[in-house]
User: Fold this.
Amino acid sequence: MDMLSCIMCRTIVPVLAIALGVLSLPVQSGAETIACTSLALDIRRTESRPTQYQVFCEATPRACLMQGPASIGLDPDRLQQVATVNRAVNNEIILRPDMECYGLEEIWTLHKAGGYGDCEDMALEKRQRLVEAGFPSAALTLAIVHHREQYFAHAVLLLESDHGTLVLDNLSDDIACWDDAPYEFERREHPDGTWIRFVRPNVRH
Assistant:
């Protein structure tokens, strides 16, 4: 999967999306309540981790442990924590393609403030920070998506909660419900470590 497109689109997509009327409707970071649904799509098959994620997990196994409940209760304080982490990582990590950083087309890794990374690196960093803040890792899963209008591949972090599935995205500082985000979902991580690939109606399998 080529994530260069998610690098190039961070600044141009919000402008284009506003013009096209397809920007996601955010869950405001200071909201007292939130009403999303749980992500539910037709499943094509269950499969193993993406190759570069598997390489990352072999090198950094603690970052891939899925522990605790697969969903959490989301009160205003926790929602604020989620929004703060999402915004902090988006602002602290400098968006840069793997080819420029490592001379490789794709590599998944963790980066701290002041470092470089692309969309999947930011998703991993957000998960780590939320786990360190006490969130269960099993409720924080990765997903690979495609933008409905701009068609680029992208990686986001999903949070499963009693208020539905939330999306943490490096293209937005706001938290969105999964079905408000402007994406087609290709596949997502399952708490047992496998990945679920979804049926995509407009894609020939």
